[in-house]
Amino acid sequence: AIQNGWLAESVILESLTAFKRAGADGILTYFAKQAAEQLRRGR
Questions:
Q1: Within 13 Å of residue 41, how many CA atoms lie on the same side as its CB?
Q2: Which of 16, 24, 22 is nearest to 43 (CA)?
Q3: What's the rounded Cα separation, in Å, for the pair 33 and 39?
Q4: Angle formed at CA 21 by CA 13 and CA 30, multiple of 5 degrees
Q5: Residue 24, pLDDT above cutoff 90
Q6: How far is residue 2's CA from residue 25's CA, in Å, rounded to a whole number?
Q7: How many domains does the structure of the chain reveal?
Q8: What EC numbers are recorded for this enzyme (predicted)?
Q9: pLDDT given at position 42
Q10: pLDDT of 32 higher than 80
Q11: Which of 11, 25, 4, 20 is nearest to 34 (CA)?
């Protein structure tokens, strides 16, 4: 989706952050690797 321009990485990370803020204990996603890299870099 990111490669096709349908989604931006920042949008995905914001969505995952919102799930966590809403109380999710875990999140399963196809974007886990990209999200982990973004978080490691400090966003």
A1: 9
A2: 16
A3: 10
A4: 35
A5: yes
A6: 25
A7: 1
A8: 4.2.1.24
A9: 79
A10: yes
A11: 11
User: Does residue 4 fall inside a structural domain?
Assistant: no
CB 1 within 8 A of CB 7: yes
The DSSP secondary structure of 3-39, one letter per residue, reads TTTSS-HHHHHHHHHHHHHTT-S----TTHHHHHHHH
- The answer to the question of residue 16 being in a domain is yes
Handedness of CA 23, 29, 35, 37 (dihedral sign): positive
2 domain-assigned: no
- Tokens for 22? 């809403």
Instruction: Give the structural domain span for 17.
Output: 9-40
The 10 Å Cβ neighbour count of residue 33 is 9
**Would you place residue 36 in the very low, low, confident or very high pLDDT band (cuts 50, 70, 90)?**
confident
